[in-house]
Amino acid sequence: MVQANQLIAAQYRNADLNKRNFGDSMYFVSAYDVFPDGSDATAKLQELVNLAQTEGKATLFFPHGAYRVTSLYNTDGIVFLGDNSTFIGGYDGVISNFGEITGDFSGGMIELNSIPSSKLSISTDEDRIRLANLSQEVLQAMAGTTPINSIPADKSVTPDKTSFMQTTTNLFNPAAVEYGIVHSANGTIVYNESYYASGYIPVSVGTVYKATKCADYAYYNSSKVFVSGVVNPIGPSVNTLTPPAGAAYVRITIRVVDLNTTMVCKNSLPSSYVAYGTNRIDITDQGFIEAINRDLESGQSKWSGKTWNVVGDSITEHNSKTTKNYQDYISAKIGCTVNNYGISGTGWRTPSVSGGTNAFYQRVPSLAAGADLITVFGGVNDWYQVGIPFVMGTFGDTDPAASFYGAVNNTITQLVTKYPTKTIAIITPIPCDNAWAANSAGVTLDQIAEAINKVAKRYSLPVLNLYHHSNVYAWDTNYKAYAMPDGLHPNDNGHLALADKILAFINSL
Predict the structure, then answer these.
(1) How far apart are CA 106 and CA 293, in angstroms?
(2) 350 CB-contact burial (10 Å; exposed 0-12 / middle 13-18 / buried 19+)
(3) How far apart are CA 332 and CA 308, in angstroms?
(4) What are the Cα distances from residue 42, in Å, to 53, 55, 66, 149, 162?
(5) What secondary structure letter does DSSP report for 42?
(6) pTM of the entire structure?
(7) Residue 97 pLDDT class (50, 70, 90 cuts)
(8) Which of 98, 227, 246, 445 could pair with 435 in a Cys bridge, judged by C-beta atoms 3.0 to 4.6 Å apart?
């Protein structure tokens, strides 16, 4: 989420550079002494709600916790957002938490309580964007603890600092209409069954409102006494309403057929219908939308939040050949836990040294039992005959000490017995600079890969054949300089390329 985090943080830091209006505003309740510490926050929260209503701010953000509130008057429908937050103490209001916010970013839109769960979710569950993926700067902003030079002194997120998003609330209530036309001269309702007169829609002087197709309308003061009216023959699909001095409400006239498509919103209308009582946040900055989509595409995996046991040789082991190994790049991208069981010089049958105990089949008992995914990646050291001579044996062998076929068979049967409900996958060795040559036993690395593949298929285990499908050109001078200097061990560039191949493979399991 690095790109998205940087774009979000930039909105807070660059207040003077971002002056485009996004419609409404947000307060962090912790900046106004409202805390989830068990104390009664009713009075202070009511003061903040009143302040938000007075200043036309639409949203309050509640950092994680339970807020004790006994009752609350929220006549303007201020939206409550939170990070796994809730009310206790008797108040039945609802905080819309990140885990409950879903949306499809393709159009730059997030809707609260109105998008199918099949769409993109922001949650703490697997396959979701996690709060842990957000930068410390963004988390500080949410908690109201960001330094003053990063967030405004009044602790609010105001329109000039959040130009990348726009909130939309439809103020038109279809359940509050009555038959008739709003009389523009005196504000009374003239009965007519072809039209509806809206209920009293709250407005603020100095704020511009947009309405879908409507006819005559009238403004009223806080006591709902007529102030002035406007003759507006039905025609335009978008109408601009500018409340005059003294206005607190407006009533509009609509056609009966337009009841369920009518909207009245502050500043602008959304591109599609938003029902009354539904709040929508539109991401308006195209660059921000693209950054989010890139992050989502690169960061989603069925293995996010899971545990992965990686068994292998020096390509899996952490050593001086590379800064990070393939599994480290994958873990950083998808957010999984890796248990590294890579040991240099080992293989399916070879323990690296004669009489050793580190062959793959010998290490299965020591693997962590709680893993969700187990991969075994190796075979080149068996081919190189590190520690012991190579003996291929025959397909069906089961004695790991007697033959390579036996070692592969024994390793796999142990893994299936130990992890019968988990995902086990096999990865063949990659080519090396003399991969086409035969060892002293007359066996090529290609034959090693095929033997591994054959035994794995016998037990219905998926195989990633990197000997045949890795794009590793270990014999090529230019490739070696770029990705595999010694012709055997990938460097950072090589591991990055392997990470892409292996991530695609495990995501397909």
Answers:
(1) 8
(2) buried
(3) 13
(4) 16, 20, 13, 30, 28
(5) H
(6) 0.48
(7) confident
(8) 445
